[in-house]
Amino acid sequence: MSADGFTNGPPPGARADWTIDQGWNGYSDAEHQVWITLYERQAALLPGRACDPFLKGLEALDLHRSGIPDFARINTELNRLTGWSVVAVPGLVPDEVFFDHLANRRFPAGQFIRKPEELDYLQEPDIFHDVFGHVPMLTDPVFADYMQAYGRGGQRALQLGQLHNLARLYWYTVEFGLLQTPQGPRIYGAGIVSSRAESLFALDDPSPNRLGFDLERVMRTPYRIDDFQQVYFLVPSLQALLDATLQDFAPIYERLARASDIPIAQIEPSDQVVTRGTQAYALNRPAAQ
Ligand code: HBI
Ligand code: FE
């Protein structure tokens, strides 16, 4: 059993790099309808909430309303814009496989789509989370560079046994990141932008803390995988995010090895506080099932 719970090689039918054919012609009308329902909900909600690079990417890739997009079609434009491709995988893949794809500008996207009864939440990233949530940002040249830098950083972190720290960076940026803009905070994180409820909660709810992004502080902060985040970090620009990853992480990992985790709802004296949250949601959330 490797560190991330995968026991052996790729599942039957998958290639050595865990990719499979998308099989776009095989999607049923019902599956296309799930995409359309989710797309319509988010398309109505996100103007004024999602950041401009995301909205531009949505338009550029024409992730249109008529159903699940064909990767062959969106890859033509995505390749032209930033050299990225979307590749289909059966689901979560081992860390080293995931990072190798990112380091080579390939985004592994789940080939399956959630069931109609799972519209609001699902455990494993499906094609809507991956393609609607993650792929539009890959049309932005700076973010495209960041995602490749993250992949390379992940490969190195695996070698150094430091993945748990780097996973937090991914979580609080790629999945749940907010961007400071002159009009106020805007969403770029895929986990937020693909979720109707969290697209509202992350920007409007008084419950979570909203803090200025600091790389090492983020890497000391645990995260939730089962519910809304209790803290969101805001980057001043995507360039600042990319610049933060272009430094040598070795001294950072050495300091992190001696530093304790920061409790998830805690605000540090050095934090740039945008919102001091009430944590009311987390304190009143239904007891974990
Ligand atoms: N696999 N398909 C897929 N998608 C992910 O987002 C993903 C993964 N494997 C590992 C992983 N994410 C995380 O462990 C890394 O982000 C740290
Ligand atoms: Fe994701």
Question: What features would you describe in this structure?
Answer:
This protein has 289 residues and is of the alpha/beta class. The chain has a single domain (26-281), classed as Phenylalanine Hydroxylase. It has helices at 29-45, 52-60, 71-82, 95-103, 127-134, 141-160, 163-175, 190-193, 196-204, 215-219, 238-245, 250-258, 280-284, and strands at 85-89, 106-110, 178-179, 186-187, 209-212, 231-235, 273-275. It is globular, with a radius of gyration of 18 Å. The mean pLDDT is 94. The site of 7,8-dihydrobiopterin has 10 residues, from helix 4 and helix 7. Residues 125, 129, 134, 175, 190-191 line the site of fe (iii) ion.
Write a brief caption for the model:
This protein has about 290 residues and is of the alpha/beta class.
Assembly state (oligomeric): single chain
- CATH superfamily membership, which one? Aromatic amino acid hydroxylase
Q: What is the name of the CATH class?
A: Mainly Alpha
What fraction of the residues are assigned to beta strands by DSSP? 5-15%
Dominant shape: globular
What is the terminal-to-terminal distance?
Answer: 27 Å
Bound molecules: 7,8-dihydrobiopterin, fe (iii) ion
Question: Mean pLDDT, rounded to whole units?
Answer: 94
The profile of the biggest β sheet is: 5 strands, mixed
Work out the helix count: 13
Counting structural domains, the number is 1
Q: Round the Cα radius of gyration to an integer and report it.
A: 18 Å
Strand order across the largest sheet? 4-3-6-5-7
